[in-house]
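Two folds, back to back.
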Amino acid sequence: MHHFTLHTSKTIRDITIPKHEDQSLWGAWAPELAMEHDFLLHGLLGISALHLALCATDPQERQHRTVTAIQHHDRGLALFRPRLGRITAANNDAVFAMFCLVVFHAFGIQRSGDAPVERLRQVLTLLRGSMAIAKGDYERMRRSRWSALRPPLPFGLALRLPDEMEDALSALQRGVGRTTSSSAVDAGTAEDETVYARSIEALRENLLVAHLFPFTAPALMLFPMGSPDAYWDLLRAGRPLALAIIANYSVILHRQRVNIWMGDWGKVVVEAVGQALPQEWRECIAWATREIAEHNASPQARQ
């Protein structure tokens, strides 16, 4: 808990809370909530242990800390699940904090291994599920101190992204028609075309927020939350345009790579997509590939 208060909380704060908002939420208020809710206490201890594991240079220490993290995380989840059907004014703030910790745990525990695109799909699917449940009591959350996680979002404004981002989105939009072409391999349906169009629009909104409000929770969440359920099925099936879309989203993760929870997620996903895509689809990830190449010398992660 001492490590969480001094160190881990800062890594979570840096990627979720704008600098002009209350900076004590994770370092002071979350531990106070944890003293009243055992599931959150185990969540904090687990994420702190996982942070220590990610920072460890000794393999044995890393393994020991990871096992401890999983034990606390599993125990916290066992206590947490029964609360999901009984979210009240008394536990709402702790429940929302636990949702956030579950997502950070997923980002950290899935950091290494094969099939990075599938691992990221699983993490973002978990984020979608967690936030969808939390969204059910959105008004209460909006009136709580957790409202600091939401900067003023520029919805409804005719704002233009930087040219390179607009070009990337245009390339994706050109790919939509190609997915239903009779000459395309694994040609999709008209419904797929609608799914892709909605997903690209969700990506546009996410890129805009990430451009205006980097290192905030919406900068990570808008595309996963705003894209249709069917998109994630297309991604799981390895459809080229679905892969290209997730590669462009991953640039957002790459730009936040100084944070230990993001690490090299963006880089490995873009590279994996680049290896999987047929040549005729490479235009759709040209911007993402350039971003990774230009910033390949990753700065030291904030630990």
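---
second:
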Amino acid sequence: MIGELIGTPQFMSPEQATGETVDGRSDLYSLGVVGFFALTGRFPFESSSTQGFLAAHITKQAPPVASLRPDLPASLSGAVDRLLEKEPSRRFQTGEELAEHLDPLRSARREIPPQIRLFSLKSSQVIRHAILLLVLAPTLSNAVRGDADQFILFTMTIAAAIALVFQAIGGLRELAAQGFSHDDLRAGLLAIGDEQQEARALVRAAPDWKERQRRRWWIIAGALIIAAIFIAISLKLRVRRPQGGYQSPLTGIIAAALGASLTMSTLVYAIVGGGAAVRMDARLRRLWTGALGKRLYDRIARRIRARPTARVVSAELGPMTVFEGLPKDVRRALGDVNRVIGSLIAAYNELGLREARLKSSQEEASRGTTGVETDTLERVMTELSEARSAAAERRESIAAALERLRLELIRLRSGVGTAAQVRAEAERGKALAAG
């Protein structure tokens, strides 16, 4: 009904908060709030009441995302800032326009094929299972009695180790069967390692990281103490049998089981969840990406006679990733196409920074300057606006050039296009990057 306000206050656009007519740009403002929260971990405005949130959306300017996350690409933080503009006309006008603005970020990002991510996950599982095996084997060895039982346990341990090895080799076979080369595997695993290092660095940079680490070690210490108490209780409840040896009542058996289970789960939590497993993952990556891993992979690839033409290139991959997925002889035939792609990406990012600086200058100039003539201020605002529009237009042209290059590379990889067509498109892109 007219005058009725429905919605979540933290996400309301100014026009919705004031009861004005809303359209899709109101939803884009709300999406900007979602993006702001996803990138910074907080809302653009804080309040203890609904009225406070609504007033802030109407009157206050959201802080620039870059002021809270300077590590983000300027085009991403600038997109969220633009979504949070008070005037709908200053936002992205459609979802398609926003998507086109963000699409080059994907082109500039190194994409990792899902198959290689799956192999990396399987390799990590091999490490985790190996750690469990190392922890469990001595414990079980002490628990069993008799040569036959010891032999059975030894055989089971060896069989489990062989199964882990075959799990890893099976992952290599799957990659080779889909046409991936060892260079693809190496590039993907190194990129995953970089991602993990960045993620760990962000976790360690959190203000409460040291406190959480201390809490984690306190939990481990407490769990081990409780496990020791259960084991002590089970030993206390044991009684000597007349015929020799010891016998435990049901309560003692339960206490022993609880103590052993808690000890095992705590050790696994401490080892697998800590830095030891991460370091072992890194060593395993070095194995797969090194000379030994290459020899093993090449031998597997030769056995199954994988054909490079079986490789399916996803249309979601960026141009640089598609280029690197091509055979070496094809990449050589393309000449400096990879450098052109890199130049276009660098130019696109530089223009994003220029847009952000021009926007900041516009906002600063729009606040007015005491003692400055109106004509001078208008002239400055016009020049800044024209420069910003020119930067945005050139960015769009570069984004389109990157997309055309990506499509030509996919056509070449699929056997439809030619290297000459890719080089011709790269020449047009080179001129655009230089201009």
